[in-house]
Amino acid sequence: MVTAELAVAIPALVAVLLLALAAVGHGIDTIRCADAARTSARVLARGEHAGTARAAAVAQAPQGASVDTVATTVAGLPAVRVTVTAPGSPALRAIGVPGPSSTSTAVTESTEVPGAR
Q1: Which helix (H) or strand (E) segment is 5 a member of?
Q2: Three-state secondary structure along 14-76?
Q3: Taking the model in full, what pTM does it have?
């Protein structure tokens, strides 16, 4: 009797443990996506080259993450929006959880000196 119960309980326990570990990894990857998006947005806002910003984002993002940048405006000021999306854990994708993603927006710095002609 006990053998049959253990045969059901042990795989269920392993599945719960794997999902818990995947959830922790998802949280870590979400933080890494946020850091990568914020760093890339700051680099672009300072007026540096897009390749430099992308390299900064890829260095901090989880492996396999995509980096998308869009020029936008915030309160009428020119800005840049960076979104970093990672593929996420296959275990969590199997149950419908989307991959970690984060977006950061930064107003670009003006290269003109006020009052200069």
Answers
A1: helix 2-45
A2: HHHHHHHHHHHHHHHHHHHHHHHHHHHHHHHHCCCCHHHHHHHHHHHCCCCCEEEEEEEEECC
A3: 0.82
Of 18, 53, 37, residue with least CA distance to 86: 37
For 58, phi and psi rounded to 5 degrees? Answer: -65, -35
Question: What's the rounded Cα separation, in Å, for the pair 60 and 70?
Answer: 19
- Burial string for 99-117 (b: 16+ CB within 10 Å, else e) reads bbbbbbbbebeeeeeeeee
Q: Residue 89 has which token pair?
A: 């854990």
pLDDT tens profile 7-49? 889 999 999 999 999 999 999 999 999 999 999 999 999 989 9
